[in-house]
Amino acid sequence: MASEKIPDWATDAVGAILNSVNLKDPFTFHHCCRVGRASRKLAKVLGMNDFEQSVLEYSGLLHDVGKVVTPESILFKPGRLTDDEMTIMKDHAAHSAKIVEALAKDSVFFRFTLPGIRYHHERFDGNGYPFQLKGERIPYAARVIAVVDTVDAMTNTRPYRQALTMDAVIAELKRCSGTQFDSNIVRAYLDALPQFENQEDPVAGEIIVSRILESAA
Ligand SMILES: [Fe+2]
C-alpha cells in the first residue's frame, strides 16, 4: 500500500457522515466508532504502518454508514428478519461503499478505505456477502474488519440478543477460525487481547466521535 497523505478534510467529512448515522441510529454510530478504534489496534498488532492503521481505522468508522439507507422497519425490527428483509439489510455494505466513493474520487486515502468497507461481510469460506469471495481473494482490510466487527456485535446487547461474555466470544472466534475468519488474523487478535483492554492515546476516530458527542450534548 503506497503511503499517501490523509486529507486535512478527512475528519470533517467523516464526522459529517457519522453525524447523520447518529441522528438515525445511535447504536450503529457507536458501533462504527468502536470498530474504527479496534480496527486500528488490530492493524497495529498485525504490523501495519501508521498510514495503513489509519486506513483500517477509517474503514472501520465507515463500514456500516450505509445503514442510513436501510428502512427503519428493518433496521430496528426487534425480531428475526424475513429473507426479503435480510436481502435489503445486506445492501448496507454496498451503500456504505457508495457513500465513501464520493470522498474517494479526489482522495487516494479514501480509495484505500473502500475494500475494507465493501467486503466486510465476506467470509473466509466463501459463504459471506455480497460477492461470496473466498480466502485471500477477500481484501486483507476486510478480513481484519470482519473479526473486529463480529467481536463488537457479540459483546453488545441488542433487543434480540444478550451480549456474550468475553470467554464465549473467544470460544466463538476459535470455532469460526478458518471458516468465517482468516485464522491468522484470529490468532493475532487472541494473542493481543490483553493489550486491547489498555487505554491508549486518542486516535483520529475518537477525536471525531468526541466532537460529535459534544455537539449533540
Ligand atoms: Fe455491516
Describe this entry's structure for a reader.
This protein is mainly alpha-helical and 217 residues long. The chain has one domain: Orthogonal Bundle (Hypothetical protein af1432), CATH 1.10.3210. 63% of the residues lie in helices and 0% in strands. The protein is built from 11 helices and no strands. It has helices spanning 10-24, 26-45, 50-62, 72-75, 83-90, 92-104, 108-118, 140-154, 166-176, 183-196, 204-216. α3 crosses α7 and α9 runs antiparallel to α10. The longest helix is centred in the first third of the chain and has 20 residues, at 26-45. The protein starts with 9 loop residues before the first helix and ends with a helix. The model has no long low-confidence stretch (mean pLDDT 92). The protein binds fe (ii) ion.
What attributes does this structure have?
Hypothetical protein af1432; 217 residues; 11 helices; single chain; binds fe (ii) ion; mainly alpha
Question: Which range does the strand content fall in?
Answer: under 5%
Which oligomeric state applies?
Answer: single chain
Per DSSP E runs of 2 or more residues, the count of β-strands stands at 0
Q: Which compounds are bound in this model?
A: fe (ii) ion
CATH superfamily: Hypothetical protein af1432
* Total separate domains: 1
List the helices and strands and how they pair.
Elements: H1 10-24, H2 26-45, H3 50-62, H4 72-75, H5 83-90, H6 92-104, H7 108-118, H8 140-154, H9 166-176, H10 183-196, H11 204-216
Bound molecules: fe (ii) ion.
Fe (ii) ion binds near residues 120 and 121.
Compose a concise summary of this entry.
By secondary structure, the protein is an all-alpha fold.
